[in-house]
Amino acid sequence: MREFIYYSRTAPTAGRYITEDLQASGRIDIAVHSVIASFFLSHKIRTDVRLHLLFAGPPEPVKHLELFPKTDGKTGVDKIYLGKKDVSGILRKMLFKYKPGIKNEVFPGYWIEKKNFMQLVEELSNQDKKLFILDPDGEDIRKVEIPDNPVFILGDHKGLPSKEYKRLAKIATPVTIGPKTYFASQTIAVVQNELDRRGI
Ligand SMILES: C[S@@+](CC[C@H](N)C(=O)[O-])C[C@H]1O[C@@H](n2cnc3c(N)ncnc32)[C@H](O)[C@@H]1O
Please, what is the average pLDDT of the chain? Predict the structure, then answer.
């Protein structure tokens, strides 16, 4: 199992804030592309990925949307259809189904709750998972040892917030995928490829 945490300061925290203009909706387009890079292969959905989306935009930050889509069973009963065309619709429905005080399973394998960035990071670190920060200034990922069940943390178009970064750097190792600055979704795709090649 591999996990990604995508943190966005601007992504909205209520369903009504997602309109047809995804870029104007707190850059939810970046989250959509990150979902696609996390789960979609040619003619196949990855079953070894868990994606955490942390949305810290208006009006009620911070929301944790966790995606580990079920792929077995009957569509509409045991699982929902995950298509590339309407990822924003799924995220919108998840935000609408937020219920205070609980981690609500909106569809099989899709949860929403209120949780902040460091809470989630510390929770995963306490499960003995090795955490990596995706950072252009980090160590070359090709030279880094990566154990099973790694967690990779990445930021939005503004990067990771510096206040959180300082605390994060105490428990996570910064790694780079190369000399350019890539889109968040491209970064996920490169990491997936690196893990696939290593059989992790
Ligand atoms: C579009 S980039 C953010 C650019 C932003 N201007 C910044 O200064 O961080 C989105 C995210 O992709 C990841 N990323 C982009 N290029 C990377 C690289 N070469 N190595 C590792 N991570 C990278 C980082 O996690 C970054 O927060």
Answer: 96
